[in-house]
Specification:
The chain has helices at about 5-25, 35-45, 95-120; strands at about 25-30, 45-50, 55-65, 70-75, 75-80, 85-95, 130-135, 135-139. By secondary structure, it is an alpha+beta fold. Mean pLDDT is about 80; it is low at about 1-5.
Length: about 140
């Protein structure tokens, strides 16, 4: 009896774990298209990167809005800056295209590994054949 069927629940659990990991892990820093105030209030991101009017950008941890001021931590120190000084904002956002690519890549590797393991599992036919009777050959 082949053990492939008994290993299937473990393979399914492994695949489910890999899919869950990739769904949770595929993010990128993307441009915020809504207003910084709306984005921060509705999403409460742990980290944002803001572009200032002079072209420089700064990462702010724990950003919050207080009136017309963006507050948060830069390198562990508390800072406040007027919203008028911001020209853009980037935040960690889901990356569905990357997620799909990772899932397809992992799926292909798992499938290829399963096919390889199945075809090389020691159930190869014997190379030596012998004849029991004139018309019956056993391998």
């Amino acid at each position: 009896m082949h053990t492939f069927h008994r290993e299937r629940p473990m393979t399914l659990r492994l695949c489910a774990g890999l899919v869950a990991f990739t769904l949770l892990g595929c993010h990128k820093m993307g441009r915020v298209t809504s207003s910084p105030v709306d984005y921060i209030l509705s999403n409460r991101p742990p980290l944002v990167s803001v572009t200032l009017s002079d072209g420089s950008s700064i990462e702010i941890a724990g950003p919050q809005i207080t009136g017309d001021t963006l507050v948060g931590f830069i390198h562990g120190k508390y800072y406040e800056m007027p919203l008028a000084a911001l020209t853009g904002m980037r935040a960690r956002q889901p990356a569905p295209a990357q997620t799909i690519a990772v899932i397809l890549g992992v799926g292909a590797l798992v499938f290829g590994g399963a096919v390889f393991a199945y075809t090389h599992s020691g159930s190869q036919p014997h190379s030596e054949c012998f004849s029991i009777e004139d018309d019956v050959t056993t391998c």
